[in-house]
């Protein structure tokens, strides 16, 4: 009993000394946090249609391998007040494998798939047979907060980048090529012009860009995408007359009855009276007994009078 008590008191006396010595050892054994990624890795995927376009996050680049002659599609988001700019660098196939110059083209479309004009940059670049790479770029107009229905001004929403070969020898189609894409956007919502307008819903497709929907499944809306609510038709005092399941049958029968009455009335008003002659010629004489008997002169009242 006395030995156990002495051991417990000795342990309590040495505890303040052992705790500081154990702390550094524990801290040295614990792993240090790994540094986080400084930037988003470049995307290595690309789409071949508008529906399969690869969506790029803000600040994310793309570096893909493709074949000469393919249509390459990317998608990115742009907000009001921003001025997007697209820069591409195309590494062509080896000069020994090419048979002539190649012309590449870059185009930008908005969420309604309307082609947007470029204010600056080289949209079409031609590389000679000895060229190793091509540089293309396109700077869009400033994204507006609203626009007139008849205009093609850029609006907030999703934008598509399409890279294609405009002209190349037939033998060069299918050769390997490498493409690097970089997208920048300058400006902020405070610079959006004109003021006093707002867009009801961004031009963003209601489904995820670049994703296909399997048969029988439900499409999941993309993050931040809102579909515009359908506008209710304006009602008038005569709206109920033309609505309903049987309204067309009612109007068909009523129109047929009115057409029949109009035909009968028109026939009654326009037909000539039967068995009568105009008053200036007098009454109709009785029929003769035989076909050889002809009426004599003066037999009709008013005959011979001019």
Please explain how this structure is put together.
This protein has helices spanning 2-29, 247-270, and strands at residues 54-55, 62-67, 72-78, 83-91, 102-109, 115-116, 124-127, 133-139, 157-167, 176-186. Helix content is 17%, strand content 22%. Strands 1, 3, 5, 6, 7 and 9 form a six-stranded mixed beta sheet that branches. A four-stranded antiparallel beta sheet has the order 2-10-4-8, with no helix packed on it. Strand 5 (102-109) and strand 6 (115-116) form a beta hairpin. It is α+β, with helices and mostly antiparallel strands. The chain is elongated.
Key descriptive features of the protein:
single chain; 306 residues; alpha+beta; six-stranded mixed sheet
What can be said about this structure in brief?
The protein is an alpha+beta fold. The protein has helices at 2-29, 247-270, and strands spanning 54-55, 62-67, 72-78, 83-91, 102-109, 115-116, 124-127, 133-139, 157-167, 176-186.
The radius of gyration is: 44 Å
Oligomer: single chain
Count of discrete alpha- or pi-helical segments spanning 4 or more residues: 2
Low-confidence stretches: 1-5, 14-38
